[in-house]
Structures are given as C-alpha cells and as structure tokens.
Amino acid sequence: MNASDARRALLVRLWDYAGVFPPAELALEDALAEWKRIRTSEDAWLVNRLVVRVEHARVCGSEPLAIVDGAEERQGDVVFREGETKLRCAGARVPSVDDVADFVRRCRDLGLRFKATAGLHHALPTDGEHGFLNLLAACVFGDEEEMLTTREISLDADAFRANGRTADADECARVRRELFASIGSCSFAEPVGELRALGIL
Q1: 100-114 tens-digit pLDDT
Q2: What's the rounded mean pLDDT across residues 78-83?
Q3: What are phi and psi of 87, to 5 degrees?
Q4: Which contacts (CB < 8 Å, 24+ apart) does range 71-79 have?
Q5: β partners of residue 52
Q6: How many Å apart are CA 29 and CA 32, to the nearest integer?
Q7: How confident is the model at residue 91 (pLDDT cuts 50, 70, 90)?
Q8: What tens digit of pLDDT does each residue of 127-165 get?
C-alpha cells in the first residue's frame, strides 16, 4: 500500500498492543513474544506501541512503549488521561453511543488528540460493543451518533465511506494526525481478522 491508499492512511499504526492487560492478561514474557511476532509480520504497519505497566518498562528495552501509570498513559512526550484524552469503551461499563459521541465532539472542539481503549475488537457494533470502524467514521465524518451505529461502512484503496459520506486518503490521514491517535487492545489478531473477513486487508 502506498501513501495515497485510504486503508493505509486510516489504519497505519492504529493499534497499541496491550497483551498484559485484561482480558488477555498475558505474562510479560508471553506478551513480548507476541509483540515481536506482530512486529515481524506482514501486518506490522498496523501496530503502534507495546502497552505495559510502569513497573515493566525497564525490561522492555528499546521497544516503542505506551506506559500506563494509573489513569495516565505516556507515549513518548504525549500523555493520555482517562476521561480527558483517553476513551475507555469497555471494562466496568460500556459507554453509551451518546457518551462516545460527546467525547469525540469535545476532543474535536478543543483540538485534543485522543486514544481509545478496551472493547474495540470488532470492526462494527457487535454484542453491545462499539465497532472500531464506527469510531473512526465518527472522527472522520462527524454526525457522531449516526456513524457510531451504522453498518454501512466500507474502506478500500480509494476511500473510506459511511452512510453516503466519503473521505479520501488525505482526509483520513489528517484525522488520524489531529484527532484520533490509536486504539489499545489486548488482542491484535481479532481486529485484524475482522478487517480480513470484510475484505479490507
């Protein structure tokens, strides 16, 4: 895929691999092994950072890290804070469509770049969980409540499309750069598998 490919623009470095966190809760050694497998696979362009707890950071060497310390997550010089610039989509509760829409709008209005985490293994809404393509659509197109619930979403080399709206690679790249940083997930295989099942990858 080249730089003008909408799939690359929208999905490049989208996932932060968080294998040591629930529900996977792998031992650090196992998570590191999976991380190294991902980083040498054909899908390596989709992954951003390895998410670890602050006490694990020293043993991870030079790997690109997202370091979680309580409600904060540091990625280099950038800090994401729960409820401010970090959106939790599952865990103790699954936020409503309205809650997620409000969060996205607030970040857009304030010029904040945010990260999402937890419960985003599915491309489209499934079993009461939000779809990661829907969250991307809400960021790209606005009309957040509509985009978070639609199943009329497609992505190919030419464009990202949802409910009759279309965005090219440049617009997808701008939104990723300015608004939506990444998704933390304890599974990399599940979301990538869903993209393959949809014919996107």
Answers
A1: 999 999 999 999 999
A2: 97
A3: -100, 115
A4: 73/115, 73/184, 75/16, 75/49, 75/115, 75/181, 78/113, 78/181
A5: 67
A6: 5
A7: confident
A8: 999 999 999 999 999 999 999 999 999 999 999 999 999
If you search the block for the tokens 């990202």, which residue do you land on?
160
Taking only the tens place, the pLDDT of each residue in 155-201 is: 999 999 999 999 999 999 999 999 999 999 999 999 999 999 999 99
CA atoms of 142 and 104, how far apart (whole Å):
9
On average, the pLDDT of the chain sits at 96
Q: How far apart are CA 158 and CA 171, in angstroms?
A: 12
CB 94 within 8 A of CB 121: no
Query: For residues 110 and 103, is the Cβ–Cβ distance under 8 A?
Result: no
DSSP assignment of 92-131:
S-PPPHHHHHHHHHHHHHHT--EEEESS--SSS-BTTBPP
What CA–CA distances, in Å, run from 45 to 49, 87, 93, 153, 201? 11, 23, 31, 22, 12
Q: Where are the domains of the chain?
A: 6-197
**Would the CA dihedral through 18, 115, 57, 32 be positive or negative?**
positive
Give the H or E element holding residue 56.
none
Q: Give the span between the Cα atoms of 192 and 198, in whole angstroms.
A: 10
| First-to-final CA distance of the chain | 10
How many CB atoms sit inside 10 A of residue 185's CB? 27
85 residue type, one letter: T
